[in-house]
UniProtKB/TrEMBL annotation:
One of its GO terms (biological process) is chitin biosynthetic process. It comes from Dioszegia hungarica. Belongs to the chitin synthase family. Class III subfamily. It comes from the Eukaryota. This is Chitin synthase. GO terms for cellular component: cell septum; plasma membrane. It is found in: Cell membrane. Polymerizes chitin, a structural polymer of the cell wall and septum, by transferring the sugar moiety of UDP-GlcNAc to the non-reducing end of the growing chitin polymer. Keywords: Cell membrane, Cell wall biogenesis/degradation, Glycosyltransferase, Membrane, Transferase, Transmembrane, Transmembrane helix. Its main location: membrane. Its EC number is 2.4.1.16.
Length: 815
């Protein structure tokens, strides 16, 4: 049985027309390209200043193309063209919004804010480029095109089509499933609109003389017939639409992402001021609804992650010139920079090209390479910087901001991070292995030097990430045992009780870690919501205990240092020479760097409302998210499925007439069209209620063997590190120590001795060995903390350099 939305969609495509008349439409080189009048309420609201003196039909007619070809073949030579290129307009900005099954509120949020950004660009007085364009009689909106690319009729929310129909970019009843038995690959609608629907949802229309009116926006809506994944959507963007329009800059957005005020302008400005800039991204932060969502610890922890990534990681990478990932949710590329190898490598992940590419396509890829294309944006970034003969760099643009929803439940977060972690891990390894290709680029020696520094930094980060499981366990076990041993503070009353409770906590830690492997290998997160929630809660409690122990050790280290005789230098030397002192240094540097960098960037509030939640959930990010991701390395969904919605669409067949092939098409009655439009608007502005959808099982594949081997290697290497650190002296040499402390006339045959065993000697020897083992464990812990401090210091230096160069660069901009 079809869902009601799907049944309604089919009914609207096949409903009979009242008093319908037909007309003959001539095919264009065998292609169905036709124009349909838009409802009167849409065409009549366009401001006269845009329609006067023009003979174009962009405001009165929607253009529909049933593209029956591959994106690579969508060219003028093959008879395919777009309205913007027909008008001979130069395109400076191509803004693409890719979607899958987002609801109408998410879609309207993105599209409306894109239109607000276009208005701000066209009205800005700060830019010579856009001001000159307006003075020359070429309105800025004619240099900007918005491409909406939907990944399949089947998964698409039909309510989104109501929103698009309300602004004139879509009409029911015009889609063609096939033309002369050639299946339609994409349905392309073109219209220039001055209407919008905001996230309320409310219809936004221009008012006479209002300076805040939206400017006309040239929209190309590409509705793919089948669900062929995001990389294929980008192939329609870059190889089909992009090649015809030849834009200077392409901005990529995911439906649901809300670009902030002038966010797109700031991205464009960065490209305009730096001719070597090949790609850029803005700041993406979590949507917290004026702080209300921060009551959810998961949202708060993710908010802190986003913030610190934008304050420390992105500025550091931008300072080097290579940002490892420009998020597909909000980023931009110079179109000519990504032509050639970058896009060729990127599109190897498109499964619709598998047969054409052979072994280079997904049929010839191992599971590790397939995972690499889960983070396809990382591949494009590396290929762009390493492009032979060129010196393109990537940058982070702090003033350009966008916000996006983040998962609010553990199951959703785990599923999302599986793709991110597996993709980024594979792509990081790819970038390190192919680092030598940077030598073929056109970068100068100084830039290459910094690329080498960044390569070493990324390699160390990869090592730390790989051994994070063992290092987190060692940190927990060493610190909670260090408190009673080093400070003689017993948090649970007495020494014996504290010892046993610590032991139980270690067992609980390991038990829940083992549980993660069982869950990850056998269950989907949405099927085990309760257990995952319990796991996050348990690790939050253990994290709170670890933080308490760390604070106790830090306070005792300060007290010890203050009580040491000598000058300030001697006190500092004593403070940072012991394990407690190194712990203090690591904690102070990490928290201090976070706080100072946040204040420097005038955005410190997350340190107060999100940092505590992040500290509590940080162990779960390693023990839950990483384990699930690695255990599901085999899960790469490439398949597509058919749609009942597609099967219900009509197909057309041409007949030979004088002058070429023609098709009989229904002549649309304006009165009926306007009546249907009123119903469409009513559906579009109806308040949205999110429905609880049932999740279908993910398709399995043949790649479990590779997954199992990698997980085994990961587990063995982490276990080997943990065991080797905890048994640095090997097994206790009790027998040798006993022999050293026995009298010389001891008779080993009958076990008797003339004089008693020297018990004091034996106790001292065993205690000495135990102390030696603990010292070596603490030395490793010290090195681990110093390593953490070093990586944090590198991030801070990069963040500081980015801030300084940005302040100095304000006076050197072209724009």
């Amino acid at each position: 049985t079809l869902p009601s939305a799907g049944a309604d969609f089919i009914r609207r495509q096949t409903m009979p027309r009242r008093a319908a008349t037909t007309r003959q439409v001539k095919l264009t080189q065998g292609h169905w390209i036709n124009e349909y009048p838009v409802p009167t309420p849409i065409s009549s609201v366009v401001e006269p200043k845009w329609t006067s003196g023009t003979k174009s039909r962009e405001f009165t007619h929607m253009r529909y193309t049933a593209a029956t070809c591959d994106p690579d073949d969508f060219t003028p030579e093959n008879g395919w063209n777009l309205r913007v290129s027909k008008y001979g307009r130069e395109t400076e900005l191509l803004i693409a919004v890719t979607s899958y099954n987002e609801d109408k509120i998410l879609y309207a949020r993105t599209l409306h804010n894109v239109m607000l950004n276009i208005r701000d660009i066209c009205n800005t007085k700060a830019s010579k480029y856009w001001r000159r364009s307006a003075e020359e009689g070429r309105p800025g909106w004619q240099r900007i095109v918005v491409a909406l690319i939907a990944d399949g009729i089947g998964p698409m929310d039909t309510n989104v089509l109501d929103v698009l129909a309300t602004i004139g970019c879509y009409q029911d009843g015009v889609l063609k499933k096939a033309v002369d038995e050639k299946s339609t690959v994409a349905h392309i609608f073109e219209y220039t609109t001055q209407l919008s629907v905001d996230a309320s949802p409310q219809l936004v229309q221009p008012h006479p003389g209002d300076p805040n009116n939206l400017v006309p926006v040239q929209i190309i809506f590409c509705l793919k017939q089948e669900n062929t994944k995001k990389i294929n959507s980008h192939r329609w963007l870059f190889n089909a639409i992009g090649r015809q329009l030849n834009p200077e800059i392409c901005v990529l957005l995911d439906a649901g992402t809300k670009p902030g005020h002038k966010a797109i302008y700031h991205l464009w400005e960065a490209f305009y001021n730096n001719p070597n800039l090949g790609g850029a991204c803005g700041e993406i932060h979590a949507m917290i609804r004026k702080g209300a969502k921060l009551l959810n610890p998961l949202v708060a922890a993710q908010n802190f992650e986003y913030k610190m990534s934008n304050i420390l990681d992105k500025p550091l990478e931008s300072s080097f010139g290579y940002v490892s990932v420009l998020p597909g949710a909000f980023s931009a590329y110079r179109f000519r920079a990504i032509q050639g190898r970058p896009l060729e490598q990127y599109f190897h992940g498109d499964h619709t090209m598998a047969d054409r590419l052979g072994k280079k396509g997904i049929h010839g890829m191992n599971i590790f390479t397939k995972n690499m294309f889960l983070a396809e944006d990382r591949i494009l970034c590396f290929e762009l910087v390493a492009k032979a003969g060129d010196k393109w760099v990537l940058s982070y643009v702090k003033p350009s901001k966008a916000e996006t929803d983040v998962p609010e439940e553990a199951a959703e977060l785990i599923s999302q991070r599986r793709r991110w972690l597996n993709g980024s891990f594979a792509a990081s390894v790819y970038a390190l292995i192919h680092f030598f290709r940077l030598y073929k680029s056109g970068h100068n020696p100084l830039r290459m030097f910094f690329f080498h520094i960044q390569g070493i930094y990324n390699f160390l980060n990869l090592i730390f990430s790989w051994f994070a499981l063992a290092n987190l366990w060692l940190t927990f076990s060493i610190i909670i045992n260090l408190v009673p041993d080093a400070t003689h503070i017993y948090l649970f009353g007495g020494e014996t009780v504290t010892h046993w409770i610590n032991l139980v906590l270690l067992w609980v830690y390991l038990a829940f870690l083992m549980l993660q492997f069982v869950l990850a290998l056998g269950n989907r997160p949405k099927g085990e919501r309760g257990l995952y929630l319990l796991t996050l809660s348990v690790y939050a409690i253990l994290s709170a205990y670890l933080i308490t122990c760390s604070l106790i050790l830090s306070i005792r280290a300060f007290q010890f240092a203050l009580n040491v005789d000598g000058d300030l230098g001697m006190k500092l030397k004593n403070l940072f020479s012991k394990t407690n002192g190194v712990l203090v240094a690591a904690l102070m540097s990490t928290v201090g760097i976070y706080l100072f960098a946040s204040i420097l960037y005038r955005d410190p509030w997350h340190m107060f409302h999100s940092f505590p939640q992040y500290l509590l959930l940080a162990p779960s990010f390693t023990n839950v998210l990483n384990v699930y991701a690695f255990c599901n390395l085999h899960d790469v969904s490439w398949g597509t499925k058919g749609s009942d919605k597609v099967e219900a669409l009509p197909a057309i067949t041409s007949s030979k007439e004088k002058g070429g092939a023609v098709v009989e098409d229904v002549q649309r009655n304006m009165a009926e069209l306007d009546e249907a439009f009123q119903q469409t608007v009513s559906r579009a502005v109806t308040p949205w209620k999110e429905a609880d959808g049932t999740d279908l099982p993910n398709p399995d594949d043949q790649n479990r063997t590779f997954r199992t081997r990698l997980v085994c290697f990961w587990l063995i290497s982490n276990a080997a590190l943990a065991i080797s650190i905890q048994t640095l002296n090997g097994l206790p040499e009790t027998r040798r120590l006993v022999e050293l402390c026995l009298p010389a006339d001891y008779n080993p045959i009958n076990g008797s001795a003339i004089v008693p065993v020297n018990a004091t000697c034996l106790t001292r020897a065993i205690n000495s060995q135990t102390q030696d083992l603990e010292d070596k464990q603490q030395y490793y812990f010290m090195y681990l903390l110093w390593g953490t401090f070093g990586l944090s210091a590198v991030r801070f230096v990069g963040c500081l350099y980015y801030w300084v160069t940005r302040q100095l660069g304000r006076c050197c901009r072209r724009n």
